[in-house]
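Structure tokens please, single chain.
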Amino acid sequence: MIWHITRRELYDNLNSLRFALTTMLLLALMLTNAIGHLREHPKRMQKYNDAVSESMTRMASHTDDSLYKLAQEGPGKLYKKPSSLYFCAAGGDPVLPDTIEGGSPFGYSEHLRGVWKLKYPDANINMKRVGPDVTKLDWAFVIGYVLSLIALLFTFDAISGERERGTLRLMFANSVPRHIVLIGKFLGALISVSIPFTLAVLINLLLISTSNAVHLNTEAWGRLGIIFLIALLYMCLFLALGLLVSARAQRSAVSLVILLLIWITVVVFMPSTLASIASEFSPPMSSEPFWKRRNQIQEELWQKYSRWVWSGKVDKETLTGKSEFFIQDAEAEERLNQERLTEKVAQVQHARAITRISPATLLQHLLESFAGTGFERHLQFVENTHRYARQFREFVADTDRSDPESLHIIGVREGMTKKKILPEAVPKFEDTLSLSKDFNTRATELLLLVLFVMVLLSGSYLAFVRVEV
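Here you go.
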């Protein structure tokens, strides 16, 4: 019986004008998305590759001098690798930093240069971009806005239309259980909307995957599969909403108006409104406390090590004092930078938690994570740089330790090995992503989206049970 109702719904939808228009619209949007990505992604990759090559050349020039020069200048800027799934969700990538650079060494004089340290250009991490970006024609826009509206257009008259035509009374006269009718209509609408969406997605991916400009590996296809399932889940949410309102409304026109108002409120206005509310509760952080603590620590270090820092002696005690000064200064600045970054991240996470009330924002967060873009992607990039910084410093220490003639005093020229370093021996920065980590991080939001669907489906069932014919 369920399949009979589902087949009837599917047949009616496939022969309707809205199905043809939906197919044309989704195909046009996905084709435009694919063409745009094929045009822009090679430029992003070329820019990234050029920047990395320049940074590697600069680091290789440091190895020609000495290990001291390498420890002093470091690897330079560390670059975030553009995601091959940028077409799925651009997110806040345009306003997030794509580099983390090594801070300039201590530069009071030629002999006071210090050691390399990480700096975080986190000025753009704010609460203004925690909601979805409607200016990008990516999958997030197509799914979040267009597909949700299409789902409502396929269900606004699913029950109210049957009641107006009198076919609902005839159906109930045959003693068909109401839950069977509801499930059949839900599945019919789900298949009807899934067909044009799946077709559009396949054509989109066919264009992108067959191009030499974009390389999708096995993990990327796994991420695309998860994104597609999230899209279907999001679609189910609005199908259930359409059935709920259609069951309560007496006429199809009333149902359509109510659903359009709900869609505008939930999808269009709510994300920006919640983001504004979140930003009010999270005022911008002042940099004054940071610089106050930074200056205080620097003064303490000067008082402790000044007699060695300015000394022209080259004995072991003086060199050790200079080394401790440079290393502690770098560690203190990195620690303060990290604390300030952690505070900003906590603010943004709090703001994003508030905006989860909106299904559109919830979808945006999920798509960004699995597409390898947006805020969560930036956090993984920062984590990768921390890991590389430790690896780079271990390399410097181990290389110096391998020379028995060295004094093993890191940070001063006289205390480190004079042997040449092979450029290929220096560890290279790799910006990687972890699908399992993304899935674990987003498990709560996935469950929340499932909960939204279950609540609306339960509500539509309770409303349909009370329908009077």
